């Protein structure tokens, strides 16, 4: 059973509920973070904490707990879950508001959840994504604003795709919930603008730097045509190959050796975490 | 005491709470509507219902209740509140989601709330707003996305202003939660694009058509310089004069006779509702 922390109280997640004057609910004023544990330990905890702190600061939300206190809560929830490994979700909103618009005191939720791994067939065949002309507002903040991809879910399904790849004016940014990479010869290329600074992205960039030239820069749609491989990264997806983007087949349409190599390096890292 | 309806149950609003897998809370996937009663009757009910239905359709959310059923719930909540007049808030979200992203069944809340009238001094002096380069996504849908104005609250306060006036590329759209009008001679002008179709806006356009030429069209920032008056409309604000926009004083900086005239016509209408 999974438990959650809500403003100082720990309870089974099925019993947790948020009052209806919450600004996350009424006004979409919320942020979150999400990470996995490996061998019972939060993966890249320092980096996740830093990002959560930055998101909070940019949304003018004071953190109710410090880093050490938060870590203690996380470890207690992991232990109470009884699972060897879990997903951990932080959600922080503008809190309860008497006038439905002004921030008084944030609401902070910390939850453990079951991990939903990517189906193995997606690693074997790669995924298809479709292009969408869009850029996330304040992309570097992990806000709760995912209206776009939920609205587009019927289009994604109709195209037999798994996700959206956002571009605007021909410049690629990211997928709806994960980062984007291209492989060209010995170069690994990833967009530097209008993206969430993914922790898996950062980890993969570090791992890749051993064997590849890693380029973080604006990436244009036109570069898709001569790319050898493409992949996406997130805590859940790890390194997941993208073999089709709209009507365009990437490389030979099969999962490429370099994406596979990076996935193996990533799996080695987390197995020894 | 105020009561609320939540997925078939009526309870005091202070006891209502939403489970933590709600897509409104986790993913900002929610919409709402808000109106007042006059003489115990919902103002412009047909128009509000129509807008709520349109917002729901555009967000792919099936309505759990029909128009007559909803009206019956609203009337029961008004009666239970014991107040002569109340505000009514509808909130509908993507509902509880097992995978935190897919819509299963919407959650619908219907609440009565105390009316928070605009302080009389704002009608006497008019308000100040500041310009913000921004346009709401899907402005015609009354989504719960109000991140922008909450983020900018410190800037609004620092400027001694009450709200933002959104413009992009020199074209004015709306305030953060209300519509925008200019008065020029015998013409009343309001933006036609990137705006929520306000019910008070529509009511005021109808009232104004008796004595003025009403123009619904793109409105440019440059038109502020020779406007006689400006005002904003919403269910709470009714017809509220704007006397300053950033550093620019509108007209002579005092509340103008035509804004005042329209407010009087509006007040007559609602008093006889």
UniProtKB/TrEMBL annotation, chains A, B:
Reactions it catalyzes: L-leucine + 2-oxoglutarate = 4-methyl-2-oxopentanoate + L-glutamate; L-valine + 2-oxoglutarate = 3-methyl-2-oxobutanoate + L-glutamate; L-isoleucine + 2-oxoglutarate = (S)-3-methyl-2-oxopentanoate + L-glutamate
Keyword Membrane in record: no
CDD domains xref list: PLPDE_IV
Database matches in InterPro entries: Aminotrans_IV, Aminotransferase-like, BCAT-like_C, BCAT-like_N, Class-IV_PLP-Dep_Aminotrnsfr
Pfam families reported in the protein's UniProt record: Aminotran_4
Cofactor: pyridoxal 5'-phosphate
Keywords: Aminotransferase, Pyridoxal phosphate, Transferase
Entry EC number(s): 2.6.1.42
Pathway: Amino-acid biosynthesis; L-leucine biosynthesis; L-leucine from 3-methyl-2-oxobutanoate: step 4/4; Amino-acid biosynthesis; L-isoleucine biosynthesis; L-isoleucine from 2-oxobutanoate: step 4/4; Amino-acid biosynthesis; L-valine biosynthesis; L-valine from pyruvate: step 4/4
MF annotations from Gene Ontology: branched-chain-amino-acid transaminase activity
Gene Ontology biological process terms, A to Z: amino acid biosynthetic process; carboxylic acid biosynthetic process
Root EC class: transferase
Gene3D superfamilies linked to this entry: 3.30.470.10, D-amino Acid Aminotransferase, subunit A, domain 2 (3.20.10.10)
Domain of life per record: Bacteria
Family listed: Belongs to the class-IV pyridoxal-phosphate-dependent aminotransferase family.
Protein name per UniProt: branched-chain-amino-acid transaminase
